[in-house]
Design goal:
The chain has about 200 residues and is an alpha/beta fold. The chain has a single domain (about 45-195), classed as Glutaredoxin (3-Layer(aba) Sandwich), CATH 3.40.30. It is built from six helices and seven strands, in the order H-E-E-H-E-H-E-H-E-H-E-E-H. The protein has a five-stranded mixed β-sheet. Strands 1-2 form a two-stranded antiparallel sheet. Strand 3, helix 3 (about 80-95) and strand 4 form a beta-alpha-beta unit.
Amino acid sequence: MMRKITLLLLLGLISLVSIALQASTSAVDAQPENKLERARNYFGDDLLIDQNGVSYRFVSDLLSQHVVLINVIFTHCQDACPMQTQKLQVVRKQLGKHFGTQIAFLSLSVDPKRDDPAALKIFAEKQQANVPGWWFLTADEATMAKILGRLNQWTDDPNNHSTLLIAGNARNAHWIKLRPDSPPERIVADLLRLAGQ
């Protein structure tokens, strides 16, 4: 009789542990979605158009799929934007297999009145940056002002835009600012850390 009671208690304990583990796993699995929902609430999920004329929702299609490195550009820029794009080319090459799969670049236009997809494509091709995993993005001015404003990067005068880099993993709500003069190796290390590498 004592053995039977002990066995029943043991089976009950195993069931409780199993239920607790399932609940814990469900809570962990739900966390990234909750964090993505927070990102949607913060940024909105507006449509942006890339250099190829393809539309993407900012959070659902871009932030949710990759660790991202975001920089601000405008296509009529003659100095800082091309220089920064060339620096990011070095970073892209150093990322190797991680670029385009785990890590993507988003170059957001701060001059949406002039930067249509065709202008963005010309800029990207001139910089040899029209590659999969690197989106040059624009939208109407209100949308770009909202998104860049949330990133603290909007300015009414494109010539005065910030060259600060912002990297983020929206799935775990981890965002960092990177100095534009950081060595490429440092940027690569920070991006890989955000990607869990």
